[in-house]
Amino acid sequence: MKKVYDCVVLGGGPAGLSAGIYLARFNRSVLVVDKHDGRSSYAQKNENYLGFPRGIQARELCARGRQQAEKYGAKMSVDTIISIKKTRKGFTLEGQKNTYLSRTLILAMGVTDLFPHIGDWKHFVGKSLFWCITCDGYKTIGKKILVIGQDDGAACTALQFLNYTKDISFVTNIHKGKETASTLWLDRLRKRNIPYYSQNILKMKGKRGFITEVELEDGTQLFPEMVFNQQGSIPNYELAAQLGVSLNQHKCVCVDSEQRTNIPFVYAAGDITSLHSHQIATAVHEGSMAAQAANYDLYEEYQRT
Asked: What is the pTM of this model?
């Protein structure tokens, strides 16, 4: 007979692992299912997270998190969940490798970043190709940077980099006329002497993860030291939608102050819940909150106030 977990956590990033640790320490049976292909698999070094004065790679932080969760009894599975069904006693999760049964669910599947898929782009991520000014803006002090994006938000971010460096270029990476950046924001770029190129990127060249040259479709060559992708990201919302979980207009999962969704015994944490504030600190906090809510909801009636 298949084991029924108290909770299955979908996603093994900082949010999911935080939830796993808390639930395991509540003496609940918990399984964390992860594909190992999200943001936490990048070579990114986080230097904002409290307690790591030298910084720590997200992949190293998660490796420590898995070890910590397993120490208290949490189980791990590398699998891709294809479908989830609500049952009378909980949830049935069909994976590519196994089927899992659970009384509660925590959705922590994160987002998929819309990086420019040009050349060896994956080798640059976390070393010279970034996506977050909050995480890595400090590293650009005095550096030559390139911002990629098509809308007002991307143009605004390019202007925010002026707090760190004056050597900024902006490329839409889309055909001229297809960008959605308004005249207001493009004028602001020009007034601050930020070159603006309304065309596609043809090539990104570099060595050992560090970009040395970006070539545009008209032959223009740029030589940034760091590139910041502002093409956005898409929440991994499909499984949540299967369950009827409420999503906002950006496909982020809607949660209350304790990370509960509109579906009883389903909770969400991390980047999948928010259009902004995609920070490890936020994810860890939300994961702990979701775990505490799930634990409380699993108590028998006589154990609740």
From this structure: 0.95
